[in-house]
Amino acid sequence: MTNAMNASSSSNSSSSSNSLHQTFSCSTIANSLAGKSVVTLDDISTAQIRMLLDKARYIDSHRKEVAHTCDGRVLATLFYEPSTRTRLSFETAMLRLGGKVIGFAGAQLSSASKGETVNDTLKVVSNYVDVVAMRHPKEGAAFVATQAVSTPIINAGDGGHMHPTQTLADLATILARFGRLNNLTVGLCGDLTYGRTVHSLIETLCRFGNVHFVLISPDELKTPQYVIDRINATESCSYEETRDLMEVIGNLDVLYMTRVQEERFTDREQYLRLRDTYILTEEKLQKAKSHMPVLHPLPRINEIAVDVDNDPRAAYFEQVKNGMLMRMALESSVLGDELCGYEPTDFVNVTEDELQSVDAHGISLADPRVHTTDENAPETLTCPNPRCITNSELTLKRKFYKADSVRHEYRCMYCDEEAENK
Ligand SMILES: [Zn+2]
């Protein structure tokens, strides 16, 4: 059955007014994602995140039914730096929906090696395809793409900045294990300074509320202040920081492991001492709750011992599957293609608590957190982030948003770094 036939048969159905109502409300939310780009999960509402999670669950059990959802569509995977597993996940997602894929991996294979800007590449490629998944080493590159074309862009990682589909995979994995995303104690362990997946997961869980975060890291790799600020601004969330995994492992409902990289340390002795502290083994897991899933964005180096893989708590390969399912849900949604036979479950209903929740600054937790360029920002502002794309593609217009009106704090629209006034 085609999408059009499915949509019309749903509309014509009068067997149950309740299911009709559900179909309409589902379409409303799904349609609101049609044509939309996703640079960060802050771009979309919690209702839309719920819908994507719900769709992914449906897709998993209806692979045949959804196999023609995106017939005739073409996805471009523009990978300016290699990330084979992420690229394969985006591509498999489109192929499993019936669409086709073009793209490049590694900037040396593209015109970028000849100095073409992201803007120009997107203006060319958008003529060929219906949706783009882009990974780029520079922070803000995905935002540049969204400014260049109206084709939906899905950020597949822009430097150390954002990687929204990894967070969707993490949320799906937590949801699968607990049936909820709140009332949890979530431990995050390892490199909490540079681990962008950790920042994004914390920020998104804050929007659902009622999470206690246990931040486990060496002093050199503590959670950045802007992430702590986000927890502090959310009344129902709290956190504690510790260096010692074993001291807290028994309290955790979820353990999210990340890689501690040697190059992040100035003191090699310190690195060697800490490295082993954070290697998760079956022996250490004996002190953890019997239902505590272990997550990891992969690839792992040695921070989770291989003997943990057979433990039912190991959830990191489940995350990989969930990543593909969430990309299927997201790709079909931004294309506005309805999944054949899908009807939303109760999970998509945003709770009254969520709807009314605001953070300490009065910002809604359920709505998208969209920043707008402040046209009156001082012209002397610069972005000090060397990894920001505005500092390598110098023709880009600098844009800043006001992050704090009391302190007159401005941040870069591209990479969210605090601006400097020179
Ligand atoms: Zn910047």
Automatic annotation (TrEMBL):
Query: Which reaction does this chain catalyze?
Result: carbamoyl phosphate + L-aspartate = N-carbamoyl-L-aspartate + phosphate + H(+)
Q: Which GO terms describe its biological process?
A: 'de novo' pyrimidine nucleobase biosynthetic process; 'de novo' UMP biosynthetic process; amino acid metabolic process
Q: Where does L-aspartate bind?
A: K114, R196, R259
Ranges of residues in domain Aspartate carbamoyltransferase regulatory subunit C-terminal:
381-420
Molecular function per GO: amino acid binding; aspartate carbamoyltransferase activity
Every copy of the Aspartate/ornithine carbamoyltransferase carbamoyl-P binding domain together lies at 36-174
Enzyme class, broadest EC rank: transferase
Subunit record text = Heterododecamer (2C3:3R2) of six catalytic PyrB chains organized as two trimers (C3), and six regulatory PyrI chains organized as three dimers (R2).
- Which family is this sequence assigned to? Belongs to the aspartate/ornithine carbamoyltransferase superfamily. ATCase family.
The record's function comment reads: Catalyzes the condensation of carbamoyl phosphate and aspartate to form carbamoyl aspartate and inorganic phosphate, the committed step in the de novo pyrimidine nucleotide biosynthesis pathway.
What protein name does the entry list? Answer: Aspartate carbamoyltransferase
